[in-house]
Write a structure and sequence with these properties.
The chain is mainly α. Helices cover 53% and strands 12% of the residues. A three-stranded antiparallel beta sheet has the order 7-8-9. It has a two-stranded parallel ribbon with strand order 1-2. A two-stranded antiparallel sheet has the order 3-4. The longest helix has 35 residues.
């Protein structure tokens, strides 16, 4: 047991759980935050017990975080129930939280000059954001910052309910479809990553290996958005490059050349390990995607998608026809063709937007 002080908390490496016992005082929350965030904490879990009772103010001060960074280009609020709350339960609280999160970004990076959106929820978020901005200007509690974000695009999930139901065919997408990615990590059978010389024990047969997937890994950043059929050639090319780099250790070399090879060795070993890991994952995915069940399901899905596209084109064309004065103008074949092109462009724009 240690008294609570600020700064780095020295934790023995064999300790996996750290328990804080504290009175519900705001100044103590700052000390706890310092203890948790200072230094590296691999594989440590932190727990907090309030004595004699917990405080909502202390909880808000300690756990206030609107946006969680999952990658160098991805922030998430982790509001998994927001769609149900807004559209089914008519609870707009989540929209206010979104507006507050955007305002927090503006305090850091300056006011966003251009905001566009689509859908009823997007419109409400914009209205709330405008109100918060006006209140902020009246208070003038924060100085104006240089603008780093020029354009904000707000999309309501309800404008495209089909996309989440379609099978993803990228490398990262199929990992998520088959094994599930949560918080940028995936749990895979550990036995698949054993060396061929190892004999896995009965315990390791059910053991899971946790793998982190983000752009910090150069190889994953390169293949994550590729179609699964394009991953194999990339991995094969990388394997040849790594093999040729390791072959450089043979032959006569000067002391300087040996020194350069040794300096590159840690990076080469890390790349080799990354390559072996993603080769194994790609093989696991291929076993699934080559199965008859997967191919039949994908075929049915694509046929249904074509029907949806056809229906979308028909409805959009009807909508444009209704706005066109057919009593005084003749709809020619060229006009109909032009309508279809417009509708196709609208559909492509809708489908190419990556919604989160």
């Amino acid at each position: 047991m240690y008294p609570l002080y600020g700064g780095t908390l020295t934790i023995p490496p064999n300790i996996a759980n750290v328990i804080f016992i504290s009175r519900p005082q705001l100044e103590l929350m700052d000390l706890i935050a310092e203890n948790v965030h200072e230094g590296k904490r691999p594989n440590k879990e932190f727990h907090l017990f309030f004595v004699p009772h917990k405080s909502l103010l202390c909880q808000k001060k300690l756990f206030k975080c609107d946006l969680f960074p999952f990658d160098n280009d991805l922030l998430s609020m982790e509001l998994s129930g927001s769609f149900k709350e807004f559209h089914l339960e008519n609870d707009p609280t989540c929209l206010y939280q979104v507006a507050q999160a955007i305002q927090g970004l503006q305090k850091l990076y300056g006011k966003i000059s251009k905001v566009t959106g689509r859908g009823p929820a997007a419109s409400k978020v914009w209205e709330l954001l405008e109100r918060l901005n006006r209140e902020e200007e009246d208070n003038k509690s924060h100085p104006a910052s240089s603008v780093a974000i020029e354009h904000l695009l707000l999309l309501d999930r309800s404008v495209d309910l089909l996309s989440p139901l379609v099978t993803q065919l990228t490398y990262e997408g199929l990992i998520d479809e088959i094994y599930g990615i949560k918080y940028n990590t995936v749990q895979l059978p550990a036995r698949k990553f054993h060396d061929s010389d190892d004999s896995p024990t009965a315990m390791s047969l059910n053991e899971k290996k946790q793998i982190i997937l983000n752009s910090g890994e150069k190889l994953f950043a390169e293949i994550r958005d590729k179609n699964v059929n394009g991953v194999g050639p990339v991995l094969s090319k990388k394997a040849k490059v790594i093999s040729s780099q390791f072959d450089e250790r043979y032959g006569d070399k000067s002391v300087q050349e040996i020194k350069q090879f040794v300096a590159r060795l840690p990076h080469m070993l890390a790349t080799k390990q990354s390559l072996a890991r993603h080769t194994t994952i790609a093989e696991m995915i291929k076993e699934v995607t080559d199965s008859s069940n997967f191919l039949e399901s994908l075929q049915v899905e694509q046929e249904k998608s074509k029907e949806v596209v056809k229906l979308y084109r028909h409805r959009q064309t009807e909508h444009i026809y209704r706005r066109y004065d057919s009593t005084t103008a003749t709809v020619t074949e060229n006009f109909t063709s032009a309508l279809h092109k417009v509708v196709d462009k609208l559909w492509l724009k809708t489908k190419t937007v990556r919604l989160l």
